[in-house]
Amino acid sequence: MVSEVDRASDDPSDDAGIPSSDPTETTTDNLTDNLTEDATEDATEDATEDATEDATEDMTDTTPSRGRTDGSSGVTPATSRRRATWGVLVPLVTAGAGLMFAMSFQAAQGSDLRADRDLPALIIAGDARVAEKVQRLDALQKEVDGLSAASGPTDARIAQLTQRAKELAPEAATTTAKGPGVEVTLNDAQRSADSLPNGYTADDIVVHQQDVQGVVNALWASGATAMMIQDQRVISTSAVRCVGNTLILQGRVYAPPYRIKAIGDVDRMRAGLDADPTVAIYRQWVDAVGLGYEVRSNDKFEFPAYSGSVDLQHATPIG
């Protein structure tokens, strides 16, 4: 049998020296449990907060920082306004530049002031105006002559000037002219450019300015005393100009054939035409491509007075 004392000695509390039912032991256990739970909760909360902050920072770091002024957003209100402004300005500037480029290109190409189809009408209208002014000038000249004749008997100075004007009138071509002479006709070749031999062009089958001038100069050099081209009286300073195959003479335009009439010694003028080098070259083209050339004599020409200006504008008399 085992005694009570033996059983008591077998209890662990007896070895520790602390009775199992001591109130201090219970209080210590409670404090330990509370501290452990508090520490565990605090550690859990701290770990959770740290993990949350780390994850938030990682996510925030992946956002581009361009244009940031605070931690709230990557784009500021000022940046948004600038982008909106550029979005409006860029299309406007592009459209303006394109418009200016188109206008410059059109201006560089140039434009016709008049369409080509209007040129014939303009030439005809201009020719009619010139003819009207010539008629008006003739009427005024006759009026001046009448007044001068009426004042002559009473004014010695006017009488002297009138007599001097009559003496110079034939040389100045301001009076009518009559007498025998020659008529030279120049004309374009009556053929197409396609029918020309090799080496010739359409420019070779039309009458040019130098051809008309050559005939006129040859006649003056051969002693012509009066001359007409087409229906106009000309003088030694009259300009003969051609544009294409048209003749411009004293503001009026003519098409071929061109007729030059001269009063003077017929035989001398014919010989002068045959000897003139410019006319000789033209006659070679007559044989080559068929240009028109004809000389006829006339026993009695009658030319009207020259109605243009006799003043020299680009030359000075010698002496």
Structural notes for this entry:
- The protein is built from nine helices and eight strands.
- With 319 residues, the protein is an alpha+beta fold.
- Among the domains are: 114-172; 176-307, Protein of unknown function DUF881 (Alpha-Beta Plaits, 2-Layer Sandwich).
- The strands form two sheets. The chain has a five-stranded antiparallel β-sheet with strand order 3-2-7-1-8, covered by helices on one side. It has a three-stranded antiparallel β-sheet with strand order 4-5-6.
- Helix 7 crosses helix 9.
- The longest helix has 39 residues, at 23-61.
| Fraction in beta strands | 5-15%
Enter the CATH topology name of the domain at 176-307: Alpha-Beta Plaits
Q: Numbering strands along the chain, what is their spatial order in the largest sheet? A: 3-2-7-1-8
Helical region count? 9
**Biggest sheet statistics:** 5 strands, antiparallel
The helix/strand series, from N terminus to C terminus, equals HHHHHHEHEEEEEEHHE
Shape: flat
What percent of the residues sit in helical stretches (DSSP H or I)? 40-55%
Cα separation of the termini: 186 Å
- CATH top level class name of the domain at 176-307: Alpha Beta
Arithmetic mean pLDDT? 74
Task: Give a count of the beta strands, DSSP E runs of length 2 or more.
Answer: 8
Question: What structural class do the secondary elements suggest?
Answer: alpha+beta
Low-confidence regions: 1-29, 55-72
How would you sum up this structure in a few lines?
The chain is α+β, with helices and mostly antiparallel strands and 319 residues long. Helices cover 53% and strands 14% of the residues. The chain is flat.
